[in-house]
Design brief:
The strands form 2 sheets. The chain has a 4-stranded antiparallel beta sheet with strand order 1-8-3-6. It contains 2 helices and 8 strands; from the N terminus they run αββββββββα. Strand 4 and strand 5 form a beta hairpin. The chain is mainly beta and about 120 residues long.
Length: about 120
């Protein structure tokens, strides 16, 4: 929470935590590991930020189906990178997604304050 608060202050956003900034999934996947297709539809509607670490580099991917156009897209993971997405209401289109890796992959997800998520998704604009 302290690091997120510091980032928000640095980019000029007022730190405000309507809910606890808590972990939403810490995991390790070995080479050949995967997380099956899922939507998180039973989870709280909120922004999520997942950090990933690929200590050996290599091929790891976040794969999702765009809820608007239905196209499947692949986002390659980078070492010490992150993925930001929103768990949406069911009537707004569920985000079906999965993860696949061919290298050791560590990840940690957190809830993200909406103001910070909007800033991050606009890359600071």
């Amino acid at each position: 929470e302290e690091q997120i608060r510091a980032l928000m202050e640095r980019v000029g956003l007022e730190p405000r935590f309507d809910r606890d900034t808590d972990s939403r999934g810490a995991s390790y996947m070995p080479p050949g590991g995967f997380m099956e297709w899922h939507t998180n539809q039973k989870h709280v509607i909120a922004w999520r930020l997942y950090f990933h670490h690929l200590p050996q580099g290599g091929d790891s991917r976040f794969i999702y189906q765009n809820p608007i156009d239905g196209r499947v897209r692949t986002v390659p993971d980078t070492d010490l990178g992150c993925n930001l997405f929103k768990i949406r209401p069911r009537n707004r289109g569920l985000l079906w997604h999965c993860i696949w890796t061919n290298v050791p992959r560590f990840s940690w997800g957190i809830y993200v304050d909406p103001a910070l998520a909007n800033w991050l998704s606009g890359f600071g604009k």
